[in-house]
Fold this protein.
Amino acid sequence: MADAGTAAPRLFAATAEAELGPTGRPPREIPEPAPLSSHGPAKVIAMCNQKGGVGKTTSTINLGASLADYGRRVLLVDLDPQGALSAGLGVAHHDLELTVHNLLVEPRVSIDDVLMRTRVEGLDLLPSNIDLSAAEIQLVTEVGREQTLGRVLYPVLERYDYILIDCQPSLGLLTVNALACADSVLIPMECEFFSLRGLALLNDTVDKVHDRLNPRLELAGIVVTMFDSRTLHAREVMSRVVEVFGDTVYDTVINRTVRFPETSVAGEPITTWAPKSTGAEAYRALAREVIHRSGR
Ligand SMILES: Nc1ncnc2c1ncn2[C@@H]1O[C@H](COP(=O)(O)OP(=O)(O)OP(=O)(O)O)[C@@H](O)[C@H]1O
Ligand SMILES: [Mg+2]
């Protein structure tokens, strides 16, 4: 029979852990988002990390879909020639005639020629494919090359509440274009040691863009993805991230689960593919935090 004297402290420890949440802090109180009576102007958020495969695209799709579920009008911009954002939303991007590439390099193409609705109500997409890989070279000789994306998005700012830009894993000209027109940068970060080093370089770039091109730019927050609380390594990296970045780390943490790779194959967000899954609930919680922090 369990001895009451030893059972009680164990119970207490379990409760304390639950109260602390995966970041090791007590989760902040986040209210349910209020419905909006009017829309725009959009908060532009660059989803950025030059490290590959950290969950930028997955977070763009699922945060976008969750914001749309809360009645926000959302535009997703695929700024990666891999076109994973477009593919993840079920768009046959290889066959598209007009993409973000045309928008960036051909002044006669208007944003409405490229805009697409998705299957999620309130969620639109500017798709891309491999054509975009030429843009970095084509833009180099342009005057105001870093502001090209900002210029093309300007006409639709009033239509949306959020514009999320899915950046490629580099800090090249396309990513600088995203940072130059963004209000904030949201950094998805895989919970492993080498990710921490990359964040210092990313912060340098964000500071430079802030000082030289876009004084509005701020850090929206860091979201830890692919977290596995069972490994000591993940818990150690998490506590280091919270130590260094403090309150900018979202309380919401995205756990590692095979449901996400499944959704890429299905070509839809986890919020429609498996709406009751913990992954879907996590991105809804992230959306509540993003809405709360941005006040939109
Ligand atoms: N929470 C998660 N759990 C398990 N797998 C995940 C999770 N999030 C993303 N993945 C998977 O990890 C891979 C990389 O994710 P994703 O494409 O979102 O990263 P990325 O940062 O956009 O990559 P890239 O730098 O190549 O653009 C994908 O196969 C995706 O399905
Ligand atoms: Mg990606």
The first helix runs from residue 4 to 20.
